[in-house]
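Entry for the shared binder. Reason: the reviewer on the internal report wants the predicted structure included alongside the sequence.
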Amino acid sequence: MGVLEKYKFKKITFGMRKGCDFRATEVNIHKTTASFKLNNGTLFKLSLLGTHNIYNVLAAIAVCSIFDIDMYNVRSALESFKPLNMRMKFTEINGMTI
C-alpha cells in the first residue's frame, strides 16, 4: 500500500483543461498584466506576468476553497497583489524593452 492510499483526502485539480475543478478560461497575457475567467464565471485581473503565474493563482484559489474562503475575498486579495520592487518590472534601454 502506497502512502497516498493510507490517507483519505479529496483530490482537487486545477489547470486550463476541461475537467479541472478550478479551470482558467479566456486567458489573456499582456505586457504587464494577465487575466482569466474561472470556470465559475469569476473574472480575475492580475498584475502578474506569464502563464505560470495563472497556474500559481489557480493553486492558491484551490487552497482557499479548502478553507471555505469567500471567492470575492480571494479575488480581491489576488487583484490587489503587487510584485516586489524590481520584480516583473519593464525597463526600456536604447529602444529595447527589458
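Summary line for the report: Helices lie at 3-6, 51-66, 71-80.
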